[in-house]
Amino acid sequence: MKPAVAALCLLFLSFLRSAYSGEQKLFTSIISFGASYADTGNLVRWEDPVLESVNLRNPPYGETFFGHPSGRATDGRIVLDFIADALGLPLVPPVLAKGQNFSTGVNFAVAGAPALNLTYLEGQNITVEIPINISLNDQLGWFEKLKPSLCSDKTPGSSDCFRESLFIMGQFGGNEYLNILVNSNMTLEQARSYVPEIVNTISNGVERLIHHGANLHQISKAQETKVRYSSATEYIVVADIIPVGCMPVILATHPSPGTADYDRYGCLKSFNAGLSRHQNALLRRRVEALRERYPHAKIAFAEHYRPVVAFLHDPGRFGELQPSASLLIF
After folding, report:
1. CA distances, 127 to each of 21, 169, 232, 276 (Å)
2. Dihedral angle of Cα 291, 324, 239, 158, to the nearest 10 degrees
3. What is the pLDDT along the chain (330 residues), one digit of tens a residue?
4. CB atoms within 10 A of CB 275
5. Cα–Cα dist 31/323, whole Å
6. What is the pTM of this model?
């Protein structure tokens, strides 16, 4: 596993320790959505000739922990694996795993997944590297189809089916930017124009999950609409995006002749500001609005941008993280 990813995993653990009360577990299952940072084996199980050359099936993937390719886009474990371990749960199985028991969790994330639908992106003349229907909306659709079986041991119509589930909305947006900037040779300004739509899609996805988690009642207060839960509390983690201007593929395909265009870490400042920080700021505001609208939902904002910058600033200090360090902000 890359050192930065390993450190990200460790930063989650301080929050996860609070998921226990003595011997009692707050979470009994994990339900995950996302792309390559969260995929535990869905892409490699996807049956489509266009994916025959996917290299996740070959070494060095998986070699440092599993001893063989595991379907993860890393040589070891991903953040989700460490979260499950910290909660005392089994590793979260991919939804495409045949004959799998999903009672302790299910993973809908697929490497290469965009937030926006494939048909929409192709309609915008964007060349999609993995042209299959794996967008956030597609993943939510799979969840909705599977929901009856996930709730089969609950009382019909019960509002607490996912009361002990941790929902993780992983990073989305990065694949759009790579498809726009690298595969479609479009400009930074063109990529930036899609940021509000990506954020809106993520926010709508979180709200969609909240509506699946409990019976809701509309109430009006001070000329604004809020939603009150009938009983259940839902826990959702929403991830921000890493610095796009620090990604090797962006640095390789969009070099700048001016040293002033790079920050002290060698990252492209305009890409970080125009895409990552812009998306993260908009997404944070949307998360805050969702907290206000759904006061009984526990929505955490998981930071990836700032920790990655911290890795670049002082890579030597990681591996000895302070126990209080946390990526999750309620």
Report:
1. 49, 25, 42, 21
2. -50
3. 444 444 454 445 545 554 454 556 689 999 999 999 999 999 999 988 888 778 898 999 999 999 999 999 999 999 999 999 999 999 999 999 988 899 999 999 999 999 999 999 999 999 999 999 999 999 999 999 999 999 887 655 555 788 899 999 999 999 999 999 999 999 999 999 999 999 999 999 999 999 887 444 444 444 455 655 544 568 999 999 999 999 999 999 999 999 999 999 999 999 999 999 999 999 999 999 999 999 989 999 999 999 899 989 888 877 644 433 334 443
4. 28
5. 26
6. 0.87
Amino acid letter, residue 293: R
